[in-house]
Amino acid sequence: MAIYKDALEASHAGKAVESRLQVSSGAIRAGRRAIALDRIESVGVIAVGKAAPAMAEAVPEAIKEKMSFGMIVTTEGYERDVEGFEVRVAGHPIPDRRSVRATDDVVELVSELGEEDLLLVLISGGASALLFSPIPQIGFNDAVALDEVMAKSEMDASGISSVRSHISRIKGGRLAVEAAPASVLTLALSDVIGDKLPTIGGGPTVADPTRFKDAITALKKARIWDKVPESVIEILESGAKGEISESPKPGDPRLSRAFAAVVGGPRVLLRAAARAARAMGLRVRCATKEIKGDATELVEGYIARAGSMVRSGTGREVFVAVGEPTLPIPEEGEIGQGGRSQHLALLMAKAMQGENHMAFLAAGTDGTDGPTDAAGGLVDGASFEAMVEAGVDVDEAISGFDSYNALQKGGARVNTGPTDTNVTDLHLLAVEGKTSSGRKSEG
Question: What architecture (CATH level 2) is domain 7-133+168-210+247-264?
Answer without folding.
Answer: 3-Layer(aba) Sandwich (3.40)
